[in-house]
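Human: I hope this is not a bother. Would you mind checking the protein record under this note? Thank you for your patience.
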Amino acid sequence: ICHIFSTDLVPGDVMVIPLNGIIMPCDAVLINGTCIVNESMLTGESVPVTKTNLPNPSVDVKGKGDELYNPEIHKRHTLFCGTTVIQTRFYTGELVKAIVVRTGFSTSKGQLVRSILYPKPTDFKLYRDAYLFLLCLVAVAGIGFIYTIINSILNEVEIGIIIIESLDIITITVPPALPAAMTAGIVYAQRRLKKIGIFCISPQRINICGQLNLVCFDKTGTLTEDGLDLWGIQRVENTRFLLPEENVCNEMLVKSQFVACMATCHSLTKIEGVLSGDPLDLKMFEAIGWILEEATEEETALHNRIMPTVVRPPKQLLPESTPAGNQEMELFELPVSEECLLIGIVRQFPFSSALQRMSVVARVLGDKKMDAYMKGAPEVIASLCKPETVPVDFQKVLEDFTKQGFRVIALAHRKLESKLTWHKVQNISRDAIENNMDFMGLIIMQNKLKQETPAVLEDLHKANIRTVMVTGDNMLTAVSVARDCGMILPQDKVIIAEALPPKDGKVAKINWHYADSLTQCSHPSAIDSEDIPVKLVHDSLEDLQMTRYHFAMNGKSFSVILEHFQDLVPKLMLHGTVFARMAPDQKTQLIEALQNVDYFVGMCGDGANDCGALKRAHGGISLSELEASVASPFTSKTPSISCVPNLIREGRAALITSFCVCELALFSVVTYSLDHFIISILISNMLVLFSALQNCAFYSLV
């Protein structure tokens, strides 16, 4: 092992990840050990992620030996540049190692930095027209200059007076103070913004903000509070839903399979003694009040990687009782004490956005058989369960919760065969575990909006300013929050566009379905792109007049549409409202696509993953004083979207001031040219025309 500078790293180098963590200087794939990483620099979600080593093709699942490494497919094994490795774990004395795969601007962070340093120039019609206006003034000054010289020579005026009068018309026609006067409105607007806690590093953007007619919002930390809250659970017994229960932490449920699933099916870990992980998992685990215990560094160094994480309930939740004879009883129905109700998490299949689920294999201390627990999207979980265990009214109950804006998670369980030993479980495939499950019920989560969010969005809608959500969170949560905050009205319908890239000789296609019913439209791939808005969303003329439609899609679908369905992009931009699972570069591409259909786009976000979009937008405002504020033209001291209407208001004031200054600049020319009848008529006509244009611009802003 040798120590070198990070600038000397090249793809193919093997680097050792130190025990106390590191800020990754490159993209690398983990080949030994596990790491806990904070990827908020790229994703905006400050949730520690567990990274595992890349599976060995020689001993992995059959058929995977020829699979090539891909950073997108193997995200769970890739340490990205700029992310922070908080903690590492190694086994039997092995070092935590990673192979460098990308460096410099080729890394994920490098691409983000490049988009900040070299953004596409922002074109604003006001400044183009201002230059044209100055050219017109110069042309008028030139005409007056020549006219004055010729007229003075014919009248035999002295040369000195001719020079003074000729230059005088130039200085009056093109006032030297015009740039300063046009800046006055911007300066005063900037001062007023500072008083309300909005700081600006690019004053020229204030004028542009006066013409914003669409604003993109990040979700987490911008529209909503950070994290989710547990609203309650609804268990299933005898294929029927029980009444919703708010309190999960009680003696009646501590021995149930439902609580056992909540205690084990998660990706939580302890960092310096503090429980960390996905906010949803964290809230779920905190609700049951159980305790998580992990092997110490000394234990992992002495044992192999099968050393399990153990969960157990607190002592006060376990009633003391004695066993009743030799009667056979189901798992968790045995009267147990605190010491024997220990559940070890033997194997974890991490959450996959493509599969929309995660699962674990766990074992109760003293039990012969292992248990498989699974949680995820309700429709997906129900499809993997025995039909007879899913309640008949499952769809109705689920729809009732989603319409109220709740995030719903389903749970399932099954007993594994006794022949599955500890070591066999480590090599078993995911599909062998995630099938033939028993449906157990639903967990209902609530993503609380910030108090000011609905009112601000309502004000923007009244001003005919469109709002769009761009988030790294999943689709269901994003659509739910969009409905909850008023971005999508209750009577509006949401159509999810799921684009599939070319694969196995098949061309790219788009599947369309409604977000509420998740029912696939008939023959979606056969619909002509020109007819999609009519055939897909409007069943009748009356329906067309009464109902509005919104398109929603994730980042992968957005990329496929940009590449393979260019003719659909303008239509989707005009009616797209929710964009979920968007990577930083995809957010920037979305801003550009909206600008291509003549929108003046604002962007409001708080994470480093929003930097490229904040820089590219006509008016980007950061709600964070960290990385995002470096790239954003505007930074709000208070993390609230109430700054957006204030910024647009001041932008409009500065814009109208600029119009008025240009108009006033013509009066001095008219006053001077009273003795020159032809020039006077010409300039007066220009003044009337300019005033008409200014009034049109003013009313379009209001």
Notes: The CA atoms of residues 151 and 181 lie 33 Å apart. The domain at 13-60+67-107 is CATH 2.70.150.10 (Calcium-transporting ATPase, cytoplasmic transduction domain A). The two ends are 66 Å apart (CA to CA). Confidence is low (pLDDT under 50) at residues 59-63, 321-339, 518-546, 695-702.
